[in-house]
Amino acid sequence: MARSAGGYRLFDAAAVERIELVHTLRQLGLDLPTVHRVLEQKATLAEVAETHVRALDAQIRSLRLSRAVLSTVAKRGTSTQEMTLIHKLAQLSARERQQIIDGFVDRVFAGVEDEDTLVIAEFMRELPDEPSVEQVDAWVELAELVSDKEFEQVLRRRVINSGPDNRIEFGLNIRPLVIEHAGRAVDSGIAPESEPGRMTLDRIVPTDLPATEQVSLLAWLDTVTEPRIERYWQLLSLINGHTPDEPSVPAFKWFAEALSAHR
Fold first, then answer.
1. pTM score
2. Which of 41, 62, 72, 132 has the fewest C-beta atoms under 10 angstroms from its C-beta?
3. What residues pair up with 3 in beta bridges, in sequence order?
4. Cβ atoms within 10 Å, residue 15
5. Tens digits of per-residue pLDDT, 48-88?
6. With bands split at pLDDT 50, 70 and 90, how would you rate the model's confidence at 185?
């Protein structure tokens, strides 16, 4: 190789280009054997880049998961044993996380053939693949909730005892009215058994509501006034990247008391 008068090596344009390529690839994190394969034209830049992107994606997922777990531990003030459990839960694959929820839903709704109930059951299954910090925290709480046998039995009794009803219709039509009117009554301190309470009730359901439909409505309210069931839905919303609805249990409890007092 040619040298200058001072003894320095002289590089032609091609050599400089190779040096710059090596420097760039090393800065991007490629190891020397991979760089050598590119220089020897045993692998194209596109092939190497694609492989490296997949490796980086895996590293990013791992780092994101580690950060999420540590943030959850810091926020929850967990013990060593709890941290191990949180890490184990967070490392579960999407399929394994789904199996935990599927098992819970299947046990709660086993033997139920009511179409509306089965629709609700399907809504209770969604989980994400790559959880964020907030989703890890929500997932840990959800895992604790669905492992609570007492909660499972409470939900199971409500499913079994409800029978065919109008839950989907109630959820679509009555829920917004309860949140609007009963929620306002709760905020204003209106007693459900009072005359203003009766007037508020009339804005939610008609005065001539059939007795059979009222029974069905009270059965539905027995479910939506359970705080742990509402928390289940809130956690699912968080896990799936949605903003959960504001707590509605106080409004529904007010509505149930007003319904019992005036109808």
1. 0.58
2. 41
3. 9
4. 12
5. 777 777 777 777 776 776 676 677 677 766 677 667 766 77
6. very high
> DSSP per residue over 133-164, as a string?
HHHHHHHHHHHHHHT-HHHHHHHHHHHHHH-S
Query: Contact, 121 vs 105, CB < 8 A?
Result: yes
The answer to whether the beta carbons of residues 67 and 133 sit under 8 Å apart is yes
pLDDT of residue 249: 93
* Helix, strand, or coil (residue 29): coil
Choose among 260, 170, 179, 145: nearest CA to 223: 170
Token pair 């509605």 is found at 248
Cβ neighbours around 113 below 10 Å, total: 8
Six-digit token string for 93: 């694959």
Q: How many other C-beta atoms can be found within 10 angstroms of the C-beta atom of residue 105?
A: 18
Kindly report, residue by residue over 187-228, the tens digit of the pLDDT.
999 999 999 999 999 999 888 888 878 877 887 888 788 899
Residue 9: strand pairing partners: 3
Measured CA to CA, the distance from residue 51 to residue 174 in angstroms comes to: 54
Task: Please answer whether residues 69 and 87 qualify as being in contact, where contact means their C-beta atoms are separated by less than 8 angstroms.
Answer: yes
The 8-class DSSP code of residue 172 comes to I
